[in-house]
Design goal:
It is built from 8 helices and 9 strands. The chain is an alpha/beta fold. It has a single domain, classed as Rossmann fold, CATH 3.40.50. Strands 3-2-1-4-5-9-8 form a 7-stranded mixed β-sheet, with helices on both faces. Strands 6-7 form a two-stranded antiparallel sheet. β1, α4 and β2 form a beta-alpha-beta unit. α2 crosses α4, α4 packs parallel to α5 and α6 runs parallel beside α7. The longest helix is centred in the first third of the chain and has 15 residues. The two termini are 29 Å apart.
Length: 271
């Protein structure tokens, strides 16, 4: 069920359906996995997440495309994928058929998880997508409802300080910050070259429209929802000698992404 159908919803649907049509990098199913490769791809041990997933209920939140869902299913998890794009979900189903595993797919907005029962997941896996909506607090409230007490929430998102900044901001000496560090400030910028192997064909693909989520809002909102932080990583590039003004150089100077693992512990935190 989808009840959130505002301008943000329609923009994201149009963009992601066009990305699927263009076969963008993050819409391509992973069809060469086995359980060992799936473990390495997900990096659960690195994140401090128990690797024994047999029978565990996993929600891939805004994570369609046949990548993480396939990896979790190969490790024996009971997988549900919720994504805004019907095309992305079709790729999850194709990957599941390829491996002979079962997954559940639901088309929906990450801000509305009403199609899912309370306390129904051991792990919510949320790859890069949080910045596609203005208010992260709505998402966190929904995640807190559907994850079990003691369950984990993996979140990868833009590094708030550098949100909206790219290698094209090189000024000859560094990368110039121009936008105010304020929640919900919108930014649009071109897709990076690595998103496509070829020039996109078919319908016009809108630029990413992302909204800054300040670090204080992310952390304090999750604490208020009863989550305890167990892991944090600043994801950066490591390309010695990269040319200043290139994407490779930028990722070493300004880590573009953060990874978190949170455990839902409402009782321990006094809620």
């Amino acid at each position: 069920m989808i009840t959130v159908q505002d301008e943000v919803y329609h923009y994201n649907v149009a963009r992601w359906e066009a990305l699927v049509e263009a076969d963008a990098l993050f819409t391509r199913p992973m069809l060469d996995l086995d359980p060992e490769k799936a473990q390495a791809y997900l990096g659960l041990e690195r994140l401090g997440i128990p690797g024994d997933l047999a029978g565990r209920k996993v929600l891939c939140l805004a994570g369609g495309g046949g990548q993480q869902s396939a990896a979790f299913a190969l490790l024996g998890a009971d997988v549900t994928v919720l994504d805004i794009s019907s095309g992305q979900l079709e790729r999850d189903r194709s990957a599941a058929e390829h491996y002979g595993v079962g997954i559940r797919t639901i088309q929906g907005d990450m801000r509305d998880l009403s199609a899912l029962d309370d306390s129904s997941f051991d792990l919510v896996w949320h790859p890069y997508s949080l910045t596609f909506v203005p208010d992260s607090r709505i998402v966190f409230r929904e995640v807190a409802r559907v994850v079990q007490s003691g369950g984990r929430y993996y979140l990868m998102c833009a590094n708030p300080f550098f949100s909206g900044l790219t290698h094209e901001s090189w000024n000859g000496e560094g990368y110039t910050l121009k936008q105010p560090y304020t929640d919900e400030v919108a930014a649009c910028y071109p897709d990076q070259d690595w998103v496509y192997d070829r020039k996109p064909a078919g319908r016009r693909i809108h630029e990413p429209k992302e909204y800054r989520q300040t670090l204080s809002r992310i952390i304090n909102s999750l604490i208020r929802e009863g989550f305890m932080l167990t892991f944090l990583s600043e994801v950066r590039g490591d390309y010695p000698g990269a040319e200043p003004g290139s994407w490779a150089h930028f990722t070493g100077v300004a880590p573009p992404w953060l990874e978190f693992v949170w455990q839902h512990r409402p009782d321990a935190l006094g809620r």
